[in-house]
Please model this.
Amino acid sequence: MSITPSKKELSHARIVEVAAKAIRRAGYRGVGVSDIMKEAGLTHGGFYAHFESRDALVVEAMARAGQENIESLSEVIERRIAKGSSRFKALVDTYLHEAHLQRSEDGCVVAALSSEMTRQDDVVREEARRRVAAMIALVQSTLTDPTDENEAAVVTATMVGALQLARTLGGKEGRAILAQARQSLLERYKQH
Model:
């Protein structure tokens, strides 16, 4: 028996969905509550019926964005594995794909927000740490030695940093950074 979500639950989910895209697109401070509520088709006054604070919304939005990112990566990785790719190569090729130069609102929340994470309140920083840990865990699951958390952290840092720099440079230079990072990681880990 399925339970139909209430109007409030549906509104709450819509606000979080909009905020998850907005924080990846414009950063923590780039989008205000009124903008989120307007884009969600709701009034600004209704915000506090759903959230204690803006930080509470940011935490939920970041968690949702991170979950969406992991699910999306996992789906593409599985399709690539089905076509003969190793798990590691599938991850690297997917994460460092040129398509991620555009539409950051659908991309990795860690790459989108890393530079801002240290300037956030503790509750937001804690969720940011969970997002980074989840990304490292995903990378770790693709390594030949999945017990090597240090290598997973290095690979994660390389991928996130490469994506950030590629987005900053854009165009041909950005694509070159992604290609160089892909090649370097695949050569280093012999995952062709």
Notes: The helical segments are 7-26, 33-39, 54-82, 87-95, 109-117, 122-142, 149-169, 171-189. Residues 55-189 form a domain with the Tetracycline Repressor; domain 2 fold (CATH 1.10.357.10). The chain has one domain: 55-189. Residues 50 and 116 are 25 Å apart (CA to CA).
